[in-house]
Protein backbone atom coordinates (compact mmCIF):
# COMPACT_ATOMS: atom_id res chain seq x y z
CA UNK A 1 0.00 0.00 0.00
CA UNK A 2 2.82 2.37 0.87
CA UNK A 3 4.57 1.54 -2.40
CA UNK A 4 1.48 2.47 -4.41
CA UNK A 5 1.15 5.68 -2.44
CA UNK A 6 4.77 6.62 -3.15
CA UNK A 7 4.33 5.75 -6.82
CA UNK A 8 1.28 7.99 -6.98
CA UNK A 9 3.06 10.88 -5.27
CA UNK A 10 6.07 10.66 -7.60
CA UNK A 11 4.12 9.73 -10.71
CA UNK A 12 5.37 12.77 -12.57
CA UNK A 13 9.00 11.91 -11.89
CA UNK A 14 8.46 8.27 -12.82
CA UNK A 15 6.75 9.19 -16.07
CA UNK A 16 9.55 11.64 -16.86
CA UNK A 17 12.24 9.00 -16.22
CA UNK A 18 10.40 6.43 -18.36
CA UNK A 19 10.02 8.99 -21.12
CA UNK A 20 13.76 9.72 -21.06
CA UNK A 21 14.60 6.00 -21.27
CA UNK A 22 12.23 5.49 -24.21
CA UNK A 23 13.58 8.56 -25.94
CA UNK A 24 17.16 7.35 -25.60
CA UNK A 25 16.26 3.89 -26.85
CA UNK A 26 14.44 5.32 -29.87
CA UNK A 27 17.22 7.82 -30.50
CA UNK A 28 20.05 5.30 -30.45
CA UNK A 29 18.02 2.88 -32.53
CA UNK A 30 18.20 5.40 -35.31
CA UNK A 31 20.90 4.81 -37.94
CA UNK A 32 21.38 8.47 -38.81
CA UNK A 33 24.84 10.05 -38.93
CA UNK A 34 24.04 12.42 -36.07
CA UNK A 35 23.13 9.52 -33.82
CA UNK A 36 26.33 7.69 -34.76
CA UNK A 37 28.30 10.84 -33.99
CA UNK A 38 26.73 11.09 -30.55
CA UNK A 39 27.40 7.40 -29.95
CA UNK A 40 31.03 7.92 -30.88
CA UNK A 41 31.32 10.88 -28.51
CA UNK A 42 29.79 8.86 -25.70
CA UNK A 43 32.19 6.01 -26.42
CA UNK A 44 35.11 8.44 -26.20
CA UNK A 45 33.86 9.79 -22.88
CA UNK A 46 33.39 6.28 -21.48
CA UNK A 47 36.88 5.36 -22.67
CA UNK A 48 38.39 8.41 -20.96
CA UNK A 49 36.46 7.74 -17.74
CA UNK A 50 37.43 4.07 -17.65
CA UNK A 51 41.06 4.50 -18.76
CA UNK A 52 42.43 5.07 -15.20
CA UNK A 53 40.77 1.85 -14.11
CA UNK A 54 42.28 0.00 -17.06
CA UNK A 55 45.68 1.56 -16.38
CA UNK A 56 45.52 0.47 -12.73
CA UNK A 57 44.54 -3.06 -13.75
CA UNK A 58 47.47 -3.18 -16.16
CA UNK A 59 49.83 -2.08 -13.38
CA UNK A 60 48.52 -4.82 -11.09
CA UNK A 61 48.87 -7.41 -13.85
CA UNK A 62 52.39 -6.23 -14.64
CA UNK A 63 53.35 -6.37 -10.96
CA UNK A 64 52.01 -9.91 -10.66
CA UNK A 65 53.90 -10.97 -13.79
CA UNK A 66 57.11 -9.37 -12.49
CA UNK A 67 56.77 -11.18 -9.17
CA UNK A 68 56.22 -14.44 -11.02
CA UNK A 69 59.24 -13.79 -13.26
CA UNK A 70 61.45 -12.92 -10.27
CA UNK A 71 60.41 -16.14 -8.55
CA UNK A 72 61.05 -18.12 -11.74
CA UNK A 73 64.50 -16.54 -12.19
CA UNK A 74 65.41 -17.37 -8.57
CA UNK A 75 64.34 -20.98 -9.05
CA UNK A 76 66.30 -21.23 -12.31
CA UNK A 77 69.41 -19.77 -10.67
CA UNK A 78 69.14 -22.29 -7.84
CA UNK A 79 68.70 -25.12 -10.33
CA UNK A 80 71.64 -23.86 -12.38
CA UNK A 81 73.81 -23.70 -9.26
CA UNK A 82 72.88 -27.29 -8.39
CA UNK A 83 73.65 -28.44 -11.94
CA UNK A 84 77.04 -26.68 -11.88
CA UNK A 85 77.87 -28.36 -8.56
CA UNK A 86 76.80 -31.77 -9.88
CA UNK A 87 78.90 -31.23 -13.01
CA UNK A 88 81.89 -30.27 -10.85
CA UNK A 89 81.47 -33.40 -8.72
CA UNK A 90 81.09 -35.56 -11.81
CA UNK A 91 84.25 -34.08 -13.36
CA UNK A 92 86.18 -34.57 -10.12
CA UNK A 93 85.06 -38.19 -9.79
CA UNK A 94 86.06 -38.85 -13.40
CA UNK A 95 89.50 -37.33 -12.82
CA UNK A 96 89.94 -39.34 -9.62
CA UNK A 97 88.92 -42.56 -11.36
CA UNK A 98 91.39 -41.95 -14.18
CA UNK A 99 94.13 -41.08 -11.68
CA UNK A 100 93.45 -44.17 -9.57
CA UNK A 101 93.47 -46.47 -12.60
CA UNK A 102 96.75 -45.02 -13.87
CA UNK A 103 98.53 -45.07 -10.48
CA UNK A 104 100.75 -48.05 -9.55
CA UNK A 105 99.85 -47.48 -5.88
CA UNK A 106 96.99 -49.10 -3.97
CA UNK A 107 94.63 -46.16 -3.43
CA UNK A 108 91.46 -45.75 -1.39
CA UNK A 109 89.31 -42.77 -2.38
CA UNK A 110 87.93 -40.69 0.48
CA UNK A 111 85.82 -37.56 0.94
CA UNK A 112 86.93 -34.58 3.02
CA UNK A 113 84.15 -33.88 5.53
CA UNK A 114 85.89 -31.17 7.55
CA UNK A 115 89.09 -29.14 7.49
CA UNK A 116 90.99 -27.12 10.04
CA UNK A 117 93.37 -24.94 8.06
CA UNK A 118 93.94 -22.28 10.72
CA UNK A 119 95.56 -22.50 14.12
CA UNK A 120 98.66 -24.34 15.25
CA UNK A 121 97.70 -27.78 13.89
CA UNK A 122 96.33 -28.01 10.33
CA UNK A 123 94.18 -31.08 9.67
CA UNK A 124 91.55 -32.67 7.44
CA UNK A 125 88.83 -35.10 8.50
CA UNK A 126 88.01 -37.94 6.09
CA UNK A 127 84.96 -40.20 5.97
CA UNK A 128 87.12 -43.36 5.93
CA UNK A 129 88.33 -45.25 9.01
CA UNK A 130 89.24 -48.63 10.44
CA UNK A 131 86.21 -50.22 8.81
CA UNK A 132 87.78 -49.30 5.45
CA UNK A 133 91.22 -50.63 6.37
CA UNK A 134 92.70 -47.23 7.29
CA UNK A 135 95.60 -47.19 9.75
CA UNK A 136 97.69 -44.50 11.45
CA UNK A 137 100.58 -43.02 9.40
CA UNK A 138 99.14 -43.77 5.97
CA UNK A 139 100.08 -41.18 3.31
CA UNK A 140 97.31 -38.99 1.86
CA UNK A 141 97.58 -37.62 -1.68
CA UNK A 142 95.42 -35.86 -4.24
CA UNK A 143 95.86 -35.79 -8.01
CA UNK A 144 98.63 -33.19 -7.67
CA UNK A 145 100.78 -34.40 -4.82
CA UNK A 146 101.28 -35.22 -1.16
CA UNK A 147 98.56 -33.90 1.17
CA UNK A 148 99.64 -35.34 4.52
CA UNK A 149 99.29 -38.47 6.65
CA UNK A 150 96.71 -40.03 8.98
CA UNK A 151 97.37 -39.32 12.66
CA UNK A 152 94.11 -40.49 14.28
CA UNK A 153 91.82 -43.23 12.99
CA UNK A 154 88.29 -44.04 14.14
CA UNK A 155 85.93 -46.73 12.89
CA UNK A 156 84.38 -44.50 10.20
CA UNK A 157 86.60 -41.41 10.05
CA UNK A 158 90.24 -40.36 10.09
CA UNK A 159 92.17 -37.23 11.00
CA UNK A 160 94.91 -36.14 8.60
CA UNK A 161 97.91 -33.96 9.47
CA UNK A 162 98.50 -31.68 6.48
CA UNK A 163 101.83 -31.15 4.80
CA UNK A 164 101.47 -27.44 5.62
CA UNK A 165 101.33 -28.12 9.37
CA UNK A 166 104.35 -26.62 11.18
CA UNK A 167 105.20 -30.00 12.74
CA UNK A 168 105.18 -31.88 9.44
CA UNK A 169 108.44 -33.21 7.97
CA UNK A 170 109.12 -35.33 4.91
CA UNK A 171 112.34 -36.54 3.27
CA UNK A 172 112.54 -35.38 -0.35
CA UNK A 173 114.86 -35.15 -3.33
CA UNK A 174 115.20 -32.49 -6.01
CA UNK A 175 117.65 -30.81 -8.36
CA UNK A 176 119.71 -32.04 -11.28
CA UNK A 177 121.10 -35.00 -9.34
CA UNK A 178 118.01 -35.65 -7.20
CA UNK A 179 119.81 -34.59 -4.05
CA UNK A 180 118.31 -35.55 -0.70
CA UNK A 181 116.78 -32.88 1.50
CA UNK A 182 114.12 -32.28 4.11
CA UNK A 183 110.88 -30.39 3.39
CA UNK A 184 109.87 -28.15 6.30
CA UNK A 185 106.66 -26.07 5.94
CA UNK A 186 106.89 -22.36 6.75
CA UNK A 187 103.71 -20.45 5.83
CA UNK A 188 100.72 -21.02 3.57
CA UNK A 189 101.65 -23.52 0.86
CA UNK A 190 105.36 -22.70 1.08
CA UNK A 191 108.23 -24.46 2.79
CA UNK A 192 112.02 -24.78 2.84
CA UNK A 193 114.11 -27.61 1.44
CA UNK A 194 116.99 -28.02 3.87
CA UNK A 195 120.17 -30.07 3.74
CA UNK A 196 121.20 -29.75 0.08
CA UNK A 197 124.84 -28.62 -0.26
CA UNK A 198 125.73 -25.44 -2.15
CA UNK A 199 127.76 -27.49 -4.59
CA UNK A 200 124.60 -29.07 -6.02
CA UNK A 201 122.56 -27.61 -8.88
CA UNK A 202 118.96 -26.77 -7.98
CA UNK A 203 116.88 -24.31 -10.00
CA UNK A 204 113.44 -22.70 -9.74
CA UNK A 205 110.88 -24.97 -11.38
CA UNK A 206 112.56 -28.19 -10.27
CA UNK A 207 110.14 -30.82 -8.99
CA UNK A 208 110.42 -31.95 -5.36
CA UNK A 209 109.43 -35.59 -4.73
CA UNK A 210 109.51 -38.02 -1.82
CA UNK A 211 112.84 -39.80 -1.42
CA UNK A 212 111.44 -43.15 -0.33
CA UNK A 213 113.76 -43.27 2.69
CA UNK A 214 110.85 -42.93 5.10
CA UNK A 215 108.80 -46.03 5.93
CA UNK A 216 105.64 -43.92 5.66
CA UNK A 217 105.92 -42.35 2.21
CA UNK A 218 106.60 -44.31 -0.99
CA UNK A 219 109.21 -42.79 -3.28
CA UNK A 220 108.52 -40.38 -6.14
CA UNK A 221 105.31 -38.82 -4.81
CA UNK A 222 105.20 -35.16 -5.94
CA UNK A 223 105.60 -32.86 -2.94
CA UNK A 224 106.39 -29.35 -4.15
CA UNK A 225 107.91 -27.17 -6.86
CA UNK A 226 111.04 -25.06 -6.27
CA UNK A 227 110.25 -21.34 -6.51
CA UNK A 228 113.57 -19.79 -5.44
CA UNK A 229 117.17 -20.77 -4.71
CA UNK A 230 119.68 -18.57 -2.87
CA UNK A 231 123.29 -19.05 -1.82
CA UNK A 232 124.39 -17.81 1.60
CA UNK A 233 128.20 -17.75 1.83
CA UNK A 234 128.01 -18.21 5.59
CA UNK A 235 125.93 -21.39 5.33
CA UNK A 236 126.89 -24.77 3.87
CA UNK A 237 123.48 -25.48 2.35
CA UNK A 238 121.32 -23.88 -0.35
CA UNK A 239 118.41 -21.71 0.75
CA UNK A 240 115.57 -23.33 -1.20
CA UNK A 241 111.92 -22.26 -1.08
CA UNK A 242 109.30 -24.55 -2.59
CA UNK A 243 105.52 -24.43 -3.02
CA UNK A 244 103.35 -27.45 -2.19
CA UNK A 245 101.74 -29.01 -5.26
CA UNK A 246 98.66 -30.51 -3.57
CA UNK A 247 95.46 -28.46 -3.69
CA UNK A 248 95.35 -28.11 0.10
CA UNK A 249 92.75 -25.35 0.35
CA UNK A 250 90.21 -26.87 -2.05
CA UNK A 251 90.46 -30.56 -1.22
CA UNK A 252 87.09 -32.30 -1.49
CA UNK A 253 88.35 -35.75 -2.41
CA UNK A 254 91.69 -37.40 -1.64
CA UNK A 255 93.37 -40.80 -1.80
CA UNK A 256 94.73 -42.90 1.04
CA UNK A 257 97.78 -44.98 0.08
CA UNK A 258 97.30 -48.44 1.59
How would you concisely characterize the structure shown here?
With 258 residues, the chain is an alpha+beta fold.
Structure, explained:
It is built from three helices and twelve strands; from the N terminus they run αααββββββββββββ. It is of the alpha+beta class. Among the domains are: 108-162, Thrombin, subunit H; 170-251, Rod shape-determining protein MreC, domain 2 (Thrombin, subunit H). Strands 1-2-5-4-3-12 form a six-stranded antiparallel β-barrel. The protein has a six-stranded antiparallel beta barrel with strand order 6-7-8-11-10-9. The longest helix has 70 residues, at 33-102. The radius of gyration is 42 Å and the shape is elongated.
Features:
Thrombin, subunit H; 28% strand; 12 strands; alpha+beta
Spans of at least 5 consecutive residues with low confidence: none
The CATH architecture of the domain at 170-251 can be given as Beta Barrel
Given the structure, what is the number of helices?
Answer: 3
Nearest-integer average pLDDT: 80
Instruction: Compute the CA-based radius of gyration.
Output: 42 Å
CATH superfamily of the domain at 170-251: Rod shape-determining protein MreC, domain 2
Under CATH, the topology of the domain at 170-251 can be stated as: Thrombin, subunit H
Q: Order of SSEs, N→C?
A: HHHEEEEEEEEEEEE
Report helical residue fraction. Answer: 25-40%
How many extended strands?
12
Main sheet summary:
6 strands, antiparallel, barrel
Question: What fraction of residues sit in β-strands?
Answer: 25-35%
Instruction: State the strand order across the main sheet.
Output: 1-2-5-4-3-12
Q: In whole angstroms, how far apart are the ends?
A: 109 Å
CATH class of the domain at 170-251: Mainly Beta
Shape field? elongated
User: What would you call the structural class?
Assistant: alpha+beta
Amino acid sequence: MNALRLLYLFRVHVLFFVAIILSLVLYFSNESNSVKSVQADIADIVSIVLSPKKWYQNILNTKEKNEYLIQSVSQLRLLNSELIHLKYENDEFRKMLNFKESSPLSLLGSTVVNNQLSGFIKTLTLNSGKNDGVLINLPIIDMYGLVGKTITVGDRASLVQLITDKNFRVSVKTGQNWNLGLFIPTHGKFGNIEGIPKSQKVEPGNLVITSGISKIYPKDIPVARVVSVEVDLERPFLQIVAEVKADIYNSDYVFIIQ
